[in-house]
Amino acid sequence: MSEQLVQNAPPGARAAVVKRAVVAGVVGHFVEWYDYGVYAYVATTLAVVFFKSSDPNAALLAVFATFAVAFFARPVGGLFFGSLGDRLGRQRCLATVVVMMSVSTFAIGVLPGYATAGVFAPVLLLLARLMQGFSAGGEIAGATSFINEYAPVGRRGVLSSLLPAASATGLLFGATLMTILTANLSESQLTAWGWRVPFLIALPLGLIGLYLRLKIEDTPLFRALVAAEQHDPTPLRSSVTRQFRPIAVAFGATLSYGVGFYVVMSYMPTYLQEVTTFGSTSVFVVTTAVLLAHIVSLPLSGALSDRIGRKPVITVASVGLVVCTYPAFLLVSQGSSLVYAILGGAVLGALIAATAAPLFAFMAEMFPTRVRNSSVSVGYNASVMLFGGTAPFIATFLIGWTGSHIAPSFYLVAAAAATALTLYRTKTGEKISKELPQT
After folding, report:
1. Domain with 203 in it
2. What's the pTM?
3. 8 Å CB contact between 387 and 350
4. Whole-angstrom distance, CA of residue 103 vs CA of residue 157
5. 388-414 pLDDT, tens per residue?
6. Would 435 be classed as within a structural domain?
7. CATH number assigned to the domain comprising residue 260
8. Which PROSITE patterns does the protein's record reference (predicted)?
9. Residue 3 — φ and ψ, nearest 5°?
10. How many domains does the chain have?
11. Residue 430 covered by a domain
């Protein structure tokens, strides 16, 4: 079925095809980011299980260093799968990465701890995390291309906003599961075996994601390229040599969301446990409020970007983060009022959503179909590798170095300012690619 057939199909049939494509992309993305994010939710337990240290902060830093190192595998995976997706198809790569992520996450759940394997325990953990990072590098670009190449022009913002919504929902599922385990298991049980449960669940979730991704055809745009024999045999080289400026814009535009996601959504439970006196129930309530505010705001911000443009929404939200992050962290870190903590966290979650919702359509619209996967992979993954994946480590380090519980806010403020400046100084991305669906 060519692109022209999709466009000329009856509206009901066309909508059904788009719906199946979005479901395949979003559900698979949920699985990927549940798998990837659950690591942060069990960080304090992993510090005990996998690292021998008399200093709890040092052990926690080691856990987050392992978390961050995996992000250095993301660009490698992005380069590999991005190029493969432009040469062989988005659907094949998306099916492959969801299997890789699920298997590597499941592997963490069966690894021996330090007490059993000694120094080999953290080494094996690192290898599994590197495999997760390699897989994640191929997920975002493939899912971004897949959904935006199916979505009509007036709906790309709202439909692609479902990708970060799936990420946050995956984190919420992980947080809920860990809260249930924490409430029903003793600390010794949690350390002995309870922490493994979220990782073991990854395997059946991965099978669901794989099934859905195998049930949908590749995008009409990619199939049209293949049929016309116009696909690029060296898409990665073409991206780097011909798309450098828009890749740089994608890099800068990602900073607000990349740092915000990992400082606020992923790191928040550990942050609350370390700097406040909240119990596990209160930590879950605050984390849930942040994630729900984020999830609800995403389609609203995506729909707004469909009406007024991607750049204005991302820019205004980034400026909002510059202004609001410090006072929001003040409210969260006090630990004396659950209401204040929820308010501060929800504000951050909503603002980060507004930087995320238009981002994936914004990136897809900057690049031609023949190099879209590769170009998005390079710009997005490089940004997240350098500044997003290192965020929990840097936040923990800043708290220990400065003695201030507010220190992580400085990092997010700097990232948001960089995104606002990037978009202010460029006109790249204002023109929508004529190759994407227009009806």
Report:
1. 3-424
2. 0.82
3. no
4. 32
5. 878 888 888 888 898 888 999 999 999
6. no
7. 1.20.1250.20
8. MFS (PS50850), SUGAR_TRANSPORT_1 (PS00216), SUGAR_TRANSPORT_2 (PS00217)
9. -60, -40
10. 1
11. no
